[in-house]
Write a structure and sequence with these properties.
mainly alpha, 5 helices, globular
């Protein structure tokens, strides 16, 4: 594995992290978002991937800017799903 791959989470790791957040019930917004998306017709697997995208934004900011996890922004991105216009920001 090259050094660049060491610095970034894989899709599999992000999905596993989201699944762990759901199982642990923390943050609560993750499970609520999953339920909302599934109840509106989104397949569970797709909803998990969307949530993983929101998580990836936070992970990227932490790694690139040596920032702290921004729970408020994560919540905002979860609230916006399935709209992902924030990915363009």
């Amino acid at each position: 594995m090259d050094n660049q791959q060491d610095n970034y989470m894989t899709e599999e790791t992000l999905i596993e992290t989201v699944e762990n957040q759901i199982a642990d019930g923390e943050p609560k917004k993750v499970k609520a978002t999953l339920m909302r998306l599934v109840m509106t017709g989104t397949p569970r697997e797709e909803a998990i991937k969307w949530i993983a995208c929101a998580l990836a934004v936070e992970i990227f900011d932490i790694m690139e800017n040596e920032a702290s996890f921004n729970a408020k922004r994560y919540d905002q991105h979860l609230d916006a799903l399935p709209n992902m216009d924030w990915l363009d920001d």
